[in-house]
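Q: Could you fold this chain for me?
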Amino acid sequence: MGIIATIVIGFIVGLIARAIMPGDQKMGIIMTTILGIVGALLAGWGGGMLGLYAPGAPAGWIASVVGAIIVLFIYGLVTKKS
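A: Sure. Below is the predicted structure, expressed as structure tokens.
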């Protein structure tokens, strides 16, 4: 059940990040889910490094969305066409 919950939460976080981030991101459901999951992992790791979360503790919703926005920004820079 943990993997299914991670996928669903990653999808929701990815959708929220794409809605907040300006511009048109061309990605499907799978990339949106991966975006949300990676954003949540980034937020948990960053929060742990800053002492905001205990080791192994999951990040909150807001931190996950912020992490997903950062990942989406980096994804946009990498895939930007000249």
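A (continued): The first helix runs from residue 2 to 20.
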